[in-house]
Amino acid sequence: MSLGAYDDDEHERRERKNSEVNASFDDVREEYNGSVEFEGEGSTEALLEQYERITGE
Question: ∠ CA 43-45-46 to the nearest 5 degrees?
């Protein structure tokens, strides 16, 4: 077999490897309770103007 070439068995092995799902990690989402407050100065228009200046649009 030349460098970079592989046979059907190798192809099947890679397909099996790529199709496996690793679900061993903890997929339970944390639940947070509380509140969020936002204090902002400036109107929506002023914030959009600042964004456009930053992004160069």
Answer: 65
Asked if the structure places residue 3 within a domain, the reply is no
The series of mean pLDDT values per 10 residues for the chain, 57 residues long, is 70 80 70 83 85 87
- Output b/e per residue, 14-32; b: 16+ Cβ within 10 A: eeeeeeeeeeeeeeeeeee
Domain encompassing residue 41: 8-55
What is the tally of structural domains in the chain?
Answer: 1
Question: pTM for this one?
Answer: 0.29
Residue labelled with tokens 């509140």: 35
Under a CB-based contact definition with an 8 Å cutoff, are residues 1 and 7 in contact?
Answer: yes
